[in-house]
Amino acid sequence: MYQAKYIIYIGNFKISETIVTQWLIMLFLIVMSLILTRNLKPVPETKRQHFLEWAVGNLRSFVTGVMGERFISRVPNMVSYIGTILLFFALSDIVTLLGLRSPTTDLDTTAAWALMTVALIYIMGVKFKGPSYFKEFIEPTPLLLPLNVIGELARPISLAFRPFGNILGGSIIMLLLYQLLGYVSGLIPNLSIPIGQFAIPVPLHMYFDIFAGLLQAFIFSMLTMVFVSSATED
């Protein structure tokens, strides 16, 4: 029921609705970035530029507060990376309000994000500590190597299944609610329009599609920052 449908066929190559939705989100972000960053001045003169500088400044302060000034001074692009994750993740959940399938209800999507975070952990660990970073797998004793390896394997699994399970669960609840309201409306005589399906689900949409989606985006971004920064600490 919740397996992504294939909607584009090019020979034997099939593209699912999850991929198409992600393309639309990326296109939206690219277009908005081009529009919002057009004709910027060294000294802000428009409300648009004032807002952008305020948003970027707060994002940088937030990321720096979590990861530390030492890390951000060496990897300043991390601010842009975290901002992109937040926006893409949040929009991936909010698009359900437009009738589109949320990419986060597909495990392939969240697994890819989790693998990106894990790769970033190792890359930053080696960047800051060199090959000695991997000595942590046998500390404080080599006997803990199996447990440390299991812990590393559990990290991407946890990162992938947390948002996937939360968002998919909310989508299933909303689907069941719509089916129930449609059935109940059909029991009312002379009612051709299922009125209950229009009004009653609104508060739940506010929670599952907006609040829960933004919360999962924040949690994933926060865990990414914490895991990456902890890998670079002495």
Automatic annotation (TrEMBL):
Pfam families: ATP-synt_A (PF00119). The chain crosses the membrane at residues 20-40, 78-98, 110-128, 164-184, 204-228. Signal peptide: none annotated. It is found in: Cell membrane; Membrane. The keyword Nucleus does not apply. CDD domains: ATP-synt_Fo_a_6. GO terms for cellular component: plasma membrane; proton-transporting ATP synthase complex. InterPro entries: ATP_syn_F0_a_bact/chloroplast (IPR045082), ATP_synth_F0_asu (IPR000568), F0_ATP_A_sf (IPR035908). It is a multi-pass membrane protein. The keyword Hydrolase applies. GO terms for biological process: proton motive force-driven plasma membrane ATP synthesis. Keywords: ATP synthesis, Cell membrane, CF(0), Hydrogen ion transport, Hydrolase, Ion transport, Membrane, Transmembrane, Transmembrane helix, Transport. GO terms for molecular function: hydrolase activity; proton-transporting ATP synthase activity, rotational mechanism. Key component of the proton channel; it plays a direct role in the translocation of protons across the membrane. Belongs to the ATPase A chain family. This is ATP synthase subunit a.
